Amino acid sequence: MTYQFLTLEVPIPGATLITINRPDALNALNLKLLQEIEACVSELEKDPQNRIIIFTGSGKKAFVAGADIAAMNDFGTKEAEEFSSIGQNAMIRIDQSSLISIAAINGFALGGGMELALACDMRIASNQAKLGLPEVSLGLIPGFGGTQRLTRLLGSGLALEIILSGEMLGAEEAHRIKLINRITPPEELMDTVFSLAKSILSRGPVAVREAKRVAKNGKSLSSIEGYRAEKLAFAGLFGGAESKEGLSAFLEKRKPGF
Ligand code: CO8
User: Fold this and answer.
1) Is 105 a domain residue?
2) How far is it, in rounded angstroms, from Cα 105 to Cα 172?
3) Pocket of ligand 1 (CB under 6 A)
4) Whether 191 and 211 share a structural domain
5) DSSP assignment, residue 77?
6) How confident is the model at residue 244 (pLDDT cuts 50, 70, 90)?
7) What pLDDT, on a 0 to 100 scale, did the predictor assign at position 219?
8) At 1, is the pLDDT very low, low, confident or very high (cuts 50, 70, 90)?
């Protein structure tokens, strides 16, 4: 499949780098781009060779500078609800995917761009990146899941400070409050991300997928239900070849052949 606004590459076997490619508008998300993200994730999920998706932005300046402000200018309530639905669906697709997702934040990650990063499982950023939810400066609020994901990630106090102030955070501050996992010099960003991807790819693929599923689903469960889901997934892994190989490899002092 080819896309108008996405460029796909396979930098390491098992991982696809998805570059958001609208540099003239700092990679702002329009309707078509959001639909392409959803379609692309669905397509990549069908490829058994592919286990990781990495999102980044084209150019040196921006990851994604938000939803397309020009496109939203003529919206009424109906169009806004539709746009929000399409954006939320794209983000849910990433969040709930069996693929592991990493945001490689190479510059501005604002509004819908920060929401895209929040939908990913992990966020690695250039130390030059700037993040924020400036929607309230436009008389809006985040509409692609940001109010929910940020609050769950940081707790209500920090999340509301970011959402209500609309202020941008530098990468170091974002790292300090655990909004992003790691920061790197810009020239080391992609190598850092690829090295993390390689580490994940070297582990048991079913175990990795199950760990993500159980951890993500736990957010909507009580602790007791979450422990039960974990126990069932843990036990289920003993029914497959992968855990037999992993356990035997350890005992035989060799690398597992997953
Ligand atoms: N949408 C459309 N175009 C954009 C956007 C955007 N979000 N951001 C930048 N651009 C365009 C600019 O208009 C400019 O285009 P042109 O060259 O044709 O004038 C080009 O990109 C370069 O931008 P700047 O000249 O502004 O570059 P600067 O380096 O001076 O500034 C900034 C960079 C600080 C990132 C600045 O561009 C900026 O503030 N951008 C907007 C950031 C923002 O407010 N983002 C939030 C948008 S709202 C949102 O994301 C809501 C999501 C939920 C929607 C729910 C829908 C119902």
Assistant:
1) yes
2) 13
3) 25-26, 28, 65-70, 72, 80, 83-84, 87, 108, 110-112, 134-135, 138, 140, 142-144
4) no
5) H
6) very high
7) 87
8) confident
